[in-house]
Structure formats: C-alpha cells, structure tokens
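Predicting structure from sequence has reshaped protein science. With that in mind, we have picked out one protein's residues alongside their backbone shape tokens:
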Amino acid sequence: MRLFPPNSILEDEIFIPRNLDSDCDTIGNLLERFGEKFILSSLEDGEYSIAVDYYLQLLGTLTERFIADEHWCWFDDFYSPDYTVSCIWDKFIPYIRSGAIAGEPLIELESGLKLIEKTEAYQNYGYPSMIPFSDLKNSKTFLERCFGVMPGLTGHLSLPEELKNESKTQHVGPGCANASKCH
C-alpha cells in the first residue's frame, strides 16, 4: 500500500537495484542530494508544505523499498539511508522550533509520520530509527540525541552553533584523549 504520492526521482533513480551496495551507501548519498535539491531548498524558500511533501515521499519510499528490496541484507550495523533521513530531519527542527512550520504543514508532517510509524519497516525493523514520531516541537538534533542516548560515548565533538555555550568543543566522557583541550 502506497502511503504518499510516488516521486519519480525516488522511484526511478534512487531506489533501484543497481544502487544497492554495502550499507546502502549509494542510496544514502543519492538521498542526501535529493534532500539538498528539493527538501532543503524548499525549507530555505519558505515552501514548508512542499518540503514536508518531499520528506514524507522520501520516508514512504524508503520504508517500502526497505522491505521490498530487503535492505537489511545489505548492512550490518550502519544503514546509510537512515542516517541521511535523520540529517535531513535535523534541518526541519529550527523551522519547527521557531514556529515557521506550523498549521497545515505541521499537521501534515505529524499525520505522515504517524503513517510511517505504522509501516512494516518501522514496526518490524525499527527503520527509520532516528527521527521523532511525536512531540515534534521538542525534537532534538542528532548531536542532542547522541548526548542523551549514548552516555558511554567518549571523545570530543565539535558542536553546531545552536548548541554552543562557552566552549567550541564538548568533552564527552572520560575517554577523550584531548580532555585538556576540551574545555
């Protein structure tokens, strides 16, 4: 059952058998380009409904093709398209937090994500795994989620502008080799 109207680029150029490779990297890279060209440009132009439509088409096609093409056979622990859709999601967050994405586009996004949450890919395999399905106004970026979900993460990470306070680098755990430089 198709959740959203088909997108010929996704169907005919990205989610095709020849693009299946280790970790589905080719699909992930092509999705990144699709996201930049259609979703991010729509967000930047204030075309929020269009951005939401493209994103939901991307997620719908991803969940369909994950099952139909048995994507789980192509990766061990890193599924590149999952990371890509998470990075694209992170671009929505400032627009949602600021209230720019509100009203009908936000309702459409919330409704669409509820449909994605009911897919076989999500229910049986947990993909897409790194996007929220509720409380969108309080959703977190990938780095914000990592700090909360991966307490054992060690090292140091540069933080994006929106997360910086006094420091340019976040010290993460006792294993940071450069702890003296992380403050």
